Amino acid sequence: MTTPDLGAPPRRITVDAAQVRRLIAGQFPHWAGLPVRPVAENGWDNVTFHVGDAMIARLPSAAEYALAVDKEQRWLPVLAPLLPLPIPVPLAKGRPGADYPFSWSVYRWLDGEPASADRVSDPVRFALDLAGFLAVLQSLDATGGPRPGKHNWFRGATLRTYDAQVRRALTALNGHLDVDLARELWETALDSPSDGVDRWFHGDIAAGNLLLDGGQLAAVIDFGTCGVGDPSCDLAIAWTLLTDDARQAFRERLSVDDATWARGRGWALWKALIVYARTVGRADEEAAEARRVLDEIFSERLVSEGRRRYVRSQDSAHRTR
Fold first, then answer.
1. At 248, is the pLDDT very low, low, confident or very high (cuts 50, 70, 90)?
2. What is the pLDDT of residues 85-130, one digit of tens each?
3. pLDDT higher than 70, residue 313
4. Strand partners, 114
5. Are 280 and 288 in contact (CB under 8 A)?
6. What SS3 class is residue 32?
């Protein structure tokens, strides 16, 4: 299997509200009178603006991120009616213009607040609702769906794409955490085979892309990294947000085998390691969150080992009776 090449980092551009107003006025004059203002928290891949009270304009911040626009325009209207929770559905596709060089999209605004541990009212129910959503997504017909590529940074493909990044992070973090355990977990993930069946995946199931209403999961947004392939990338949320009990419920609801679980843990480990390596020595929120996720991954492994040792000891005791 050929390992994909990530290439050079994207060259991001800035976008401001005045540009968006000009784009809308020139291409969608029936919306020209609506106020345009930035959303409170923007993502990395796209710059997003409110258009009136009911819509958003979502503009890719680099050429690589713009590759997802046609994919979302093509597939989200197909997936949306089949899923148990609301997802974004494009209302219109914009063209380059007003000194903005890429295609872009207009969506209906989905209400809700981003998930966080303190906002989730019932962690186990949240985990089961999310697992139910992913189970339906994975069950949908993947024929003709977008295979892993630059459009989604090879989500759904082999974790070996990120091996060099992880090795560099482990070198940088020597003395700051248990790099031997991290390396063991990473190598286990690399060596855990997929069944090779293409399934739909979201690609970035993260707290900021899960909207809550009254503490319960209400919508799933930002499908820029979606595609068909190995869906284990969608399991990373088990370590980045879920509690111990919720993690177990999540795994059982999805009937995840050991190999897929190891790969999912690998996706969480990759991101946490590279962020922690970049922020080590800092005392800010980003550094603390990366360390928290790593601690969650390590503690889950130790608990799992303890359970296995207990089961083996019980089996041994039973055989000697």
1. very high
2. 999 999 999 999 999 999 999 999 999 999 999 999 999 999 999 9
3. no
4. 211
5. no
6. coil
Using CA atoms, how far residue 54 sits from 16, 19, 87, 91, in Å, is: 19, 20, 15, 11
Tell me what the pLDDT averaged over the chain comes to.
94
Measured in degrees and rounded to the nearest 5, phi and psi for residue 210 equal: -115, 115
Would you tell me the crossing angle of helices 258-279 and 163-172 to the nearest 10 degrees? Answer: 50
Residue with tokens 């050429």: 63
The first and second tokens of residue 162, run together, are: 């990120």
d(CA 277, CA 207): 21
Backbone dihedral region of 28: left (phi > 0), alpha (psi from -120 to 50 degrees) or beta? beta
pLDDT for residue 321 is more than 60: no
Return the closest-CA partner of residue 301 out of 230, 242, 241, 244: 244
Coil, helix or strand at residue 87: coil
Kindly give the residue spans of alpha helices, DSSP state H, lying in the chain.
Answer: 17-27, 63-79, 123-139, 163-172, 179-191, 237-240, 244-254, 258-279, 285-320
Write the burial class of residue 134 (CB in 10 Å: 0-12 exposed, 13-18 middle, 19+ buried): buried
* Full strand arrangement of the beta sheet holding 104-108: 36-38, 46-51, 55-60, 104-108, 90-94
Q: How many CA atoms lie within 13 A of 88 on its CB side?
A: 28
**Which residue, among 175, 209, 166, has the nearest Cα to 43 in the 3D structure?**
209
